Amino acid sequence: MTRVKFELPADDLARATAFYREVFGWAAQKLPFEYVLVDTDGEPVDPQDADGGISPRTEFVQGPVLIIEVPSIDDVAPKVTAAGGTLLNAKERVGDYGFSQYVKDSEGTVLCLWESIADAT
User: Fold this and answer.
1) What structural domains and CATH numbers belong to the chain?
2) Checking CA distances to 118, which of 50, 63, 70, 93 falls within 20 to 30 Å?
3) pLDDT in tens, 71-91
4) Which PANTHER family does this one have (predicted)?
């Protein structure tokens, strides 16, 4: 089973964070690198269970991205290419939280595969 989260790109993380707090009442937690975790229920953010994040706009993250949590990126990435998708970057470690890899599905939609450290082997 997979869990789906989201990532919103921003040119200014502080400005975007303030927007989502003020407009929707989301809770936010800045990480020690350029990323903000958010919980849409307004409760304090649990880094292991956040609903999504706000990230700097990058080559891959130009619009909203679905983050699909998987038990193993190494197992899922070959399935992406076998099903007609494309790997956009190599699997990367994200602090002490987990690993990510951006992919495109068969229709060109950018997705982010996520493997949490708790699930990593």
Assistant:
1) 3-116 (3.10.180.10)
2) 63
3) 999 999 999 999 999 999 999
4) GLYOXALASE-RELATED, VOC DOMAIN-CONTAINING PROTEIN
How many residues can be counted in the chain?
A: 121
Establish how many alpha carbons lie within 13 A of residue 113's alpha carbon, considering only the half-sphere containing its beta carbon: 27
Q: Which two tokens stand for residue 52?
A: 């999504």
Tokens coding 62: 């130009």
Using CA atoms, how far residue 112 sits from 51, 71, 108, in Å, is: 14, 13, 13
pTM over 0.85: yes
Q: Return d(Cα 80, Cα 117) in angstroms, integer.
A: 21
The residue assigned the tokens 């997979």 is 2
- Yes or no: say if 28 and 75 are a contact pair by the CB < 8 Å rule: no
User: Pick from 29, 32, 55, 22: which is nearest to 43 by CA?
Assistant: 29
DSSP element (H, E) containing 87: strand 86-87
Characterize the bridge pairing of strands 110-116 and 27-30.
Answer: unpaired
d(CA 70, CA 111): 12
pLDDT in tens, 104-113: 999 999 999 9
